[in-house]
């Protein structure tokens, strides 16, 4: 099975970092990771919306979590999205499609549970207004929105190829990715009134945090057998590391062309 054409278009439109690594994967595994990425991106865009109120964000996220814990179909999300259609991105409005049409049936319930739990955790942080005061708070937030995805994707490796990885290393991988993104998007986040840095932290403190977690993620990479999963994880790590490196520059830019050059080191299936 190949990736749904609408899903592939959504990947290209919504991901600078993940689209080329996902294309390293094969068949049902590619579809499962695509569905997982687009579903988590859909709820992430609710969390990040500059126009939705805190109350609306939390209600939407908790409603999504509840729907995923019941019997649902592609159209089940339409009633909760309808009052907010003007504020929601196409990737979010298509959440039902990503969760029902794209993932293989044998793994879909696993994805539904993971996305439901993530939506609940996001709602908690929305209601807290993203108040991150300490490194412990940062650990909790980066687990909620990224470390848990590292675990979820690792569970897909086990489902598809019986590849087992260390959960703590997977969480560190996700944390390193998220901290790098926080550095990359720092100006935009502050402009919309959100500060993900712990109290008193500088950009260098966040770089140290990201680097420490990415270093631990090397253990994760070392545990993988060669093949498409190895390619996905190493390419993604290389893109994150390159992004972290450019955050030291006054104008942090890493173009799609530069990412394509990085990806050229890896053979596609």
UniProtKB/TrEMBL annotation:
GO terms for biological process: farnesyl diphosphate metabolic process. This is Farnesyl-diphosphate farnesyltransferase. Keywords: Transferase. The lineage of its organism: Bacteria, Bacillati, Actinomycetota, Actinomycetes, Mycobacteriales. GO terms for molecular function: squalene synthase [NAD(P)H] activity. InterPro entries: Isoprenoid_synthase_dom_sf, Squ/phyt_synthse, Trans_IPPS_euk-type. The keyword Transferase applies. It comes from Nocardia pseudobrasiliensis. It holds the Pfam family SQS_PSY.
């Amino acid at each position: 099975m190949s990736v749904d054409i609408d899903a592939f278009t959504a990947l290209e439109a919504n991901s600078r970092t993940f689209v080329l690594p996902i294309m390293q994967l094969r068949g049902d595994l590619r579809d499962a990771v695509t569905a997982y990425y687009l579903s988590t991106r859909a709820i992430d865009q609710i969390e990040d919306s500059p126009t939705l109120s805190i109350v609306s964000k939390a209600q939407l996220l908790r409603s999504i979590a509840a729907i995923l814990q019941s019997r649902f179909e592609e159209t089940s999300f339409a009633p909760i999205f309808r009052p907010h259609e003007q504020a929601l991105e196409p990737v979010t409005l298509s959440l039902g499609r990503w969760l029902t049409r794209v993932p293989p049936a044998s793994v879909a319930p696993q994805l539904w549970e993971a996305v439901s739990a993530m939506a609940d955790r996001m709602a908690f942080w929305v209601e807290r207004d993203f108040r991150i005061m300490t490194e412990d708070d940062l650990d909790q937030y980066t687990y909620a929105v990224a470390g848990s995805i590292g675990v979820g994707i690792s569970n897909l490796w086990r489902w598809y190829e019986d590849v087992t990885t260390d959960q703590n290393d997977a969480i560190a991988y996700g944390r390193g990715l998220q901290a790098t993104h926080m550095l990359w998007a720092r100006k935009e986040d502050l402009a919309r009134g959100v500060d993900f840095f712990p109290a008193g932290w500088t950009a260098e403190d966040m770089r140290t945090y990201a680097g420490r977690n990415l270093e631990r993620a090397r253990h994760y990479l070392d545990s993988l057998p060669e093949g498409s999963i190895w390619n996905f994880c190493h390419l993604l790590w290389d893109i994150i590391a390159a992004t972290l490196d450019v955050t030291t520059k006054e104008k942090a830019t890493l173009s799609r062309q530069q990412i394509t050059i990085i990806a050229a080191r890896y053979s596609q299936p």
